[in-house]
Design a protein that fits this description.
3% strand; mainly alpha; 72% helix; 315 residues; two-stranded antiparallel sheet; single chain
Amino acid sequence: MEFTLITLLNGVSYGLLLFMLSSGLTLIFSMMGVLNFAHASFYMLGAYFAYTISSKIGFWPALVCAPLLVGLLGALVERYGLRSVHKYGHIPELLFTFGLSYVIVELVQLIWGRSTVPYAIPKELSGHLFTLYTTTFPMYRGFMMLVALLMLASIYLLLTRTRIGLVIQAALTHPETVEALGHNVPRVFMLVFGGGCALAGLAGVVGGNAFVTEPGMAATLGSIIFVVVVVGGMGSLAGAFVASLLIGVLQTFAVALDYSMVSVLGKLGIVIGAGAPGYDLLSLTIAQVAPVMPYLMLVLILIFRPRGLLGTREG
């Protein structure tokens, strides 16, 4: 019971971090139809900006300032880069964001170096939140979960209860009508893109010190983000939330389980020797194949439900 509950909590916290990352990408795609390949790079920038700001004036100012800086940078990218190629179709947009991701990585390495930076968890959040049986649950993990849930509630209220949220949703389906009513649709899209990047930056602020802040962090989580978005359904925020939790819990449990077919069959009285056909495959543990599981889920979703779990928009 202890192992199950602690692993479940760790899986949920990891899944909520994935949601913080994928929510911005989902919003950008649902509102603009742009699949931003550089989204994970903005997550990395959020972590590096937070590291620099927190080393000067503390973590709490960095929690506010770093996402705003990343959002501003994202808005500038949309205004002076992405908007110029938007008229040529989706392929130029993909190529632009794909190239941008490499540019950001190189700039990060030039400014902060190629090695890991010491972006630490703040002292006031470094203790234990509670103890379950004999295992303690870190306070910072609970803080990450709280930030993710507050972010989800904020996005929902913004899109459904505010005037700007209604304008954003209307601009998605009826841009000409919205423009005729006096709203600047390109500016709306710029704000959406900047806001999505700011959400990625916020994920970098709270995730960079919980895991690791180094130039490869974007590549590590970048592919998982797209798995979450596709599994949940392209453009579905609720689908991204469900898929994030599902993948986070599944992968965390898989990493924690050290069983293989050889060990399972051995407990049933079936002994498989090292020279048996397929022994190398059967001796692989669940933990060893855990990194493959999200992509296996992606393949199965594309085969049996191409629109994703809660998808409403065709890709």
